[in-house]
Amino acid sequence: MQNAKFKDLAPYIFLIAAVFLSFPGPLFAADDSAGIVTKVRGQVTARKTGDEKSLALRTGDAIAVGQIIQAAKGSAAQLVLTDDSVIHLLPGTTLQVSQYTFSAVENRRSAVIRVIDGSARFIVYKRRSTDSRFAVVTDQVNIGAGNSDFLIKVSGNATEVANVGPSFSIGNISPLAVGRVQLGTNQKSIVADKEPPSQPSTITPQQRRKYLKDAEI
To answer: How distant, in Å, are the alpha carbons of 88, 138, 190 from that of 112?
Structure first.
C-alpha cells in the first residue's frame, strides 16, 4: 500500500527535484540590496565588478552591493540607501557601493562608498548607533561621515572635499600620509596623493550656492 502511494508521488518528487537543480545558485540568495534609484537624468548605468556589460538604470531600480554606477556626461542620478542616506551622482561620475549593510532593528549601518572619478554629494542626515560606519573614500581621501552633508570632486591625483553641513574630519587614505583636519561648516580642503589634507579654507556664500546648484538632480 505504501509502495503504491510512493509510485503515485514519484513523478512529482522528480519534477520538484528537477526544478531545484535547475537554479544556477542558491534558491534563497542573501539580500545584497543597498537602496534604490529615485531620480535619473540622462544615461546612468550599473555593472558588476569585472563585468564589461552595463545595464541602464531607471527610477525605482535597486542598487546592489558591489555595483559600479556611472553617470555619463550631462547625466545624473539620485540614490537613496536603505538607511535613508542620499547620494547625488553628478555628470561624468563613477562610484561603487563597496560595502553596505543596514539593520533597522539595531539602528546600525556599515557602508563604504568609493568614488572612482567625478563629483558627488552625500547627505547623511540620520544618526545611527555609535558603532555604525559610513565611509566615503577615493584614491586620496578617507571620510568618516556621521551626520553630514558634503560634496567631493575627484580630479587626477587629488580630491576636493567641500563641507556644507556639520563638521567632520578627513585624512589621506594612505597610512603613509599622517595627519587629519577638521572641516567645519562651509569649509573645504584638498587631499593629494600621499599628502596630508590642506588646511581648511572658507567657502563663501556665493561658492556654497554654486556647489548646491551644481549638485541638483
So the answer is: 16, 10, 20
Residue with cell 544615461: 43
Q: Among 13-22, 139-148, 206-215, which is the least confidently predicted range?
A: 13-22
The pLDDT tens digits of the residues spanning 151-191 come to 999 998 999 999 999 999 999 999 888 889 999 999 999 99
When pLDDT is cut at 50, 70 and 90, the band that residue 52 belongs to is confident
Does the structural domain 32-214 have CATH classification 2.60.120.1440?
yes
- Torsion on CA atoms 201, 204, 208, 209, rounded to nearest 10: -160
